[in-house]
Amino acid sequence: xxxxxxxxxxxxxxxxxxxxxxxxxxxxxxxxxxxxxxxxxxxxxxxxxxxxxxxxxxxxxxxxxxxxxxxxxxxxxxxxxxxxxxxxxxxxxxxxxxxxxxxxxxxxxxxxxxxxxxxxxxxxxxxxxxxxxxxxxxxxxxxxxxxxxxxxxxxxxxxxxxxxxxxxxxxxxxxxxxxxxxxxxxxxxxxxxxxxxxxxxx
Length: 202
What we know:
Blueprint: E1 2-6, H1 18-22, H2 24-51, H3 57-60, E2 63-66, E3 78-83, H4 85-96, E4 98-101, E5 113-115, H5 131-136, E6 141-144, E7 153-156, E8 164-169, E9 172-175, H6 181-192, E10 198-201
Antiparallel strand pairs: 1-3, 1-10, 2-3, 4-9, 5-8, 6-7, 7-8
């Protein structure tokens, strides 16, 4: 999560300008913060297109924005740019690197599910939604253990034809850090409004 604020020293103004500080200037600050936050949101989505191989719309849509609004307590307006929880969960290893194992976001209870050689993947290279349930509705599809001690595979055994592997459960998948949410956000702030006195809270 990245919080964007514009700080303004209202104490430097005398009482005659209070209405300006609380009115027109406050609205201008809110517009500036939101203008910048929107560009940060767009820049982060654009960075996903470069860092990831065909990210799905759900991932791109996971970059969310809370816009700044007037504050009753007179505090500085702030906008938040952040990843939705489920998207943040499965992108965590894309940022930090590491190993994804059973029970992590986007996995089964036995391990990460990956497409098999015979899977009909979507245009992003992923298994379509409800792929397993739909496949299991076919009479020749079932989970089978192909090798002792390894998780089962989803296979199709059409009569008189070779066995087809539709999906595999890996014991673990390895990731290297290849995307920096905060780095991309900070660069976008500097590019969008380089002269503004921003306060960034990560």
